[in-house]
Amino acid sequence: MKKSAVSKAARMTEARRVARLAREYRQQGYEVERNVPMGDGLNADLRVRKGDQTIVIAVETWESIRKDGEGTVELARRLTGVPGMRFDLVMTAPRERRNPVPAQEKH
Known about the structure:
By secondary structure, the chain is of the alpha+beta class. It has helices at about 10-25, 60-80; strands spanning about 30-40, 40-50, 55-60, 85-90. A four-stranded mixed beta sheet has the order 1-2-3-4, sandwiched between helices.
């Protein structure tokens, strides 16, 4: 996905999560590729393979989804129904609630 429209902080958060996921998949015996071109200007953050299973992974923050979520949606659409292929969206740094809902008081 294109990440140029998001803040440096969001890009750094995503990069840390991608690195951690890459490590975790390698430890599980997957072959790991980072920043994989998927055609038409779309890139996957990770593509991991083990046997006949391939997982394409996009790592996003709320900021990147708001600013450029169309690429992520398009990538998911393209991969839907492809045999042996799965698309995973990993959300990182979840958005905090600005106005949390107060717990209901017991009567």
